[in-house]
Design a protein that fits this description.
- By secondary structure, this protein is α/β, with parallel strands linked by helices.
- About 30% of the residues lie in helices and about 20% in strands.
- The chain has a single domain (about 10-305), classed as Survival protein SurE-like phosphatase/nucleotidase (Stationary-phase Survival Protein Sure Homolog, Chain: A, 3-Layer(aba) Sandwich), CATH 3.40.1210.
- It has nine helices and eleven strands.
- Helix 3 (about 60-70) packs parallel to helix 7 and helix 4 (about 110-125) runs parallel beside helix 6.
- It is globular.
- The relative contact order is 0.17.
Length: about 300
């Protein structure tokens, strides 16, 4: 069963016309009213910052600097080592090694989900953060990649605990160039700051930044030869249903199998995240933390089970 995002109308209203207002004027013909300014009394947001590339990776360090410069109170609680591709996995081990190498930085020897769980329970024991930001991740988390992404998994762990969350990723579908992608993390984080400001401006007074249980999966393309270009616009998208990665197994004859993986892109779904990123636009996909498929599929399952007995 493919996971679908079942979202309240408020989330879709938030993401579509509102975010289009952050794009260059040429990217959107719609004229939107400017958002109300964030009240000065609101104070800085308390942000738990995590990722799946490791607590010392360039993306999370750049995110820490940029979000702090924007006036937010940011604390890194992230994996000690690279945990890419761990998805929503949580170790559930009897012990967990945690290091505190510097102020505002905690390194957890576990997955992004473990890191968020530890951060919410211990680092933010005095009160939940206003927002969990996961990333920015090196490479895209679109289509089937998002389902298995540790970056998205960290955001999901926050949503499961009732904390608003944003997953940030930088990259396109081609093999990433490290230097260019790191450069593109600058525009990614500039947009993240604008997005957070927009959420603050539209959130109810003293209320959460996003509707309950809803997070945002943000994928920023690499634009320009050096990665510092400006995206063509912003699109409210959904997770494209294709898988992208195709594994191949070769029997070595000794009980082991050689595994290779190749990218096999298929036609992008209209309105999906792949279509947006491939067009040089920022894809913002609302997501939730459960596997419910919606009323129509529930009705189908009920009809299927009608009269069936143990």
């Amino acid at each position: 069963m493919r996971r679908k995002r079942v979202l309240p109308l408020a989330a879709l209203m938030l993401c579509a016309p509102a975010l289009a207002g952050t794009a260059p004027a040429a990217a959107s013909p719609q004229t939107m009213p400017a958002p109300a300014p964030v009240p000065a009394t609101a104070g800085p947001l308390r942000i738990l910052l995590t990722n799946d590339d490791g607590y010392n990776a360039p993306g999370i360090r750049k995110a820490f600097e940029r979000l702090t410069a924007a006036g937010h109170d940011v604390t890194i609680v992230a994996p000690l080592t690279n945990q890419s591709g761990t998805g929503t996995k949580m170790m559930s081990a009897p012990t967990l090694t945690v290091k505190h190498p510097e102020p505002k930085v905690w390194a957890v020897d576990g997955t992004p989900g473990d890191s968020v769980a530890f951060g919410l329970a211990e680092v933010f024991a005095d009160g939940a953060p206003d927002l969990v930001v996961s990333g920015t991740n090196f490479g895209p988390n679109v289509a089937g990649l998002a389902t298995h992404s540790g970056t998205v998994g960290g955001a999901v762990a926050a949503l499961e605990s009732g904390v608003p969350a944003i997953a940030l990723s930088t990259g396109g579908l081609t093999a990433p160039d490290p230097v260019t992608t790191v450069n593109a993390m600058g525009p990614t984080l500039d947009f993240a700051v604008k997005l957070i400001d927009r959420l603050r401006a539209r959130a109810p007074r003293s209320g959460p930044l996003l509707p309950k249980g809803v997070g945002l999966n943000v994928n920023h393309p690499v634009v320009g030869a050096d990665g510092t270009g400006t995206a063509a616009g912003v699109s409210a998208t959904f997770q494209d249903p294709q898988t992208l990665l195709e594994p191949d197994f070769t029997d070595s004859g000794d009980g082991t199998w050689k595994v290779t993986v190749k990218v096999v892109p298929r036609p992008a779904a209209k309105g999906g995240d792949i279509e947006a990123v491939s067009a040089g636009r920022i894809a913002v996909s609302p997501m939730n933390a459960d596997w419910n498929t919606g009323p129509a599929d529930h009705a189908l399952a009920s009809a299927l089970l009608a009269g069936l007995r143990p």
